[in-house]
Amino acid sequence: MNQCKFCREPFNVEYEVICPTCGHDHDENYKMRSLLDKGDKIRRISDGKLFTYTGPDDSDDENYGHVEEMLVPVYLPDFEKEEE
User: Fold this and answer.
1) What is the per-residue burial (b if ≥16 Cβ within 10 Å, else e) of 34-47?
2) Cβ-contact 21, 38 below 8 angstroms
3) How far apart are CA 22 and CA 71, in angstroms?
4) Mean per-residue pLDDT of the chain
5) CB-based burial of residue 83 (10 Å sphere; 0-12 exposed, 13-18 middle, 19+ buried)?
6) pLDDT tens digits along 19-31
7) Residue-range definition of the domain harbouring residue 60
């Protein structure tokens, strides 16, 4: 069981795409890499830590990208773009 990334209510992300509590469509998270530009700030949802997006990884998988603060690709659906 996971939490909705927006309302934090528990629900099964593997079997449901839309949160039954707030209606957020979690499928749109899988397009995050195309919404990010180099230098964008992204916040890790689990602990609130801020990172700087540096670009896509070498794979064709939209779910992974690089941040300045880590040497390995990160799973982008675990982050949210920080609005300035």
Assistant:
1) eebeeeeebbebee
2) no
3) 35
4) 80
5) exposed
6) 777 666 666 555 6
7) 2-81
40 neighbors 81 (Cβ within 8 angstroms)? yes
Whole-number pLDDT of residue 63: 83
pLDDT at 47: 92
Kindly report the length of the chain: 84
Question: Could you give the CA distance from residue 42 to residue 66 in angstroms, rounded to a whole number?
Answer: 11
Reading the block at residue 66, the tokens are 């690089």
Q: How many Cα atoms are found within 13 Å in the side-chain-facing hemisphere of 62?
A: 10
Half-sphere exposure of 15 (CA within 13 A, CB side): 5
CB 5, CB 26: distance < 8 Å? yes
Counted domains in the chain: 1
